Amino acid sequence: MTPPEAPMAGIADQGKTSPAVSVCVSGASDGAQPGEQSARRARAPKPPKIRAGMELLTKRGDFIAAARARKQGTTGMMVQGRKRSDDGPFRVGYTCSKKVGNAVMRNRAKRRLREVARLLLAEHGRSGWDYVLIGRAGETTTRAFELLQKDFLYALRKIHGN
Q1: Which H or E element spans position 81?
Q2: Nearest-angstrom CA–CA distance, 113 and 116
Q3: Residue 6 has what pLDDT?
Q4: Which pLDDT score, from 0 to 100, does residue 33 have?
Q5: 119-153: b or e for each residue (b if 16 or more CB lie within 10 Å)?
Q6: Which segments of 76-138 does DSSP mark as H helices, in order?
Q7: Which residues contact 58 (CB under 8 A, 6 or more apart)?
Q8: pLDDT of residue 40
Q9: Sheet of 70-73, strands arranged across
Q10: In tens digits, what is the pLDDT along the chain, a chain of 162 residues?
Q11: What is the pLDDT of residue 54?
């Protein structure tokens, strides 16, 4: 009498055979050696985003760096300004927290901030600076536009040290 055969299930668990593993070699399709960056994957740096003739801040790190620099609060907005190490054109960013209101109110506040910056930064902005305009709850959307412009000019004077 022969002993009953052992079931095949569980052999991989016992270490006798390795489980099935899929292997993917990166860069194998374009002939590049492992560890080399293929020409297909190399990307040119993105051009900066420009709106209304102003370069926009888009990266979180730039907003954080501006938050650590000079800031000036006014009734209608908060303005943060940072002198960069280069002499490139000024850059500007806009933000509104949920304290400002729902999405409609936040978008309205950012539109007003963009228009203030478009009108005044071309003349009063300095090259090599980053500016962040932050909307205030209940004020940025309801404040008279002329007063919003005066608030921005006041904040710029304080940030630049005039």
Answers
A1: strand 77-83
A2: 5
A3: 55
A4: 57
A5: eebeeebeeebbbbbbbbeebbbebeeeebbbbbe
A6: 103-124
A7: 48, 49, 93
A8: 65
A9: 50-51, 54-56, 91-95, 129-135, 77-83, 70-73
A10: 555 555 555 555 555 666 566 555 555 455 555 555 555 677 888 888 888 778 999 999 999 999 999 999 999 999 999 999 998 899 999 999 999 999 999 999 999 999 999 999 999 999 999 999 999 999 999 999 999 999 999 999 999 997
A11: 86
Residues pairing with 73 in the sheet: 78
Q: Which two three-digit tokens encode residue 79?
A: 């303005």
Residue linked to tokens 């006041």: 154
Placement of tokens 């009108």 in the chain = 119
Helix pair angle (103-124, 145-160), 10° resolution:
60
**Cα-flanking dihedrals φ and ψ of residue 95, to 5°?**
-155, 150
Determine the 3-state secondary structure of 85 from DSSP.
coil
Tokens of 7: 């079931």
In the block, residue with structure tokens 């052992």: 6
How many angstroms separate the Cα of 154 from the Cα of each of 30, 77, 78, 89?
Answer: 57, 11, 11, 21
In this structure, what token pair is assigned to residue 134?
Answer: 């932050």
Give CA angle at 157 (152, 162), nearest 5°: 175
Residue type, 16: K
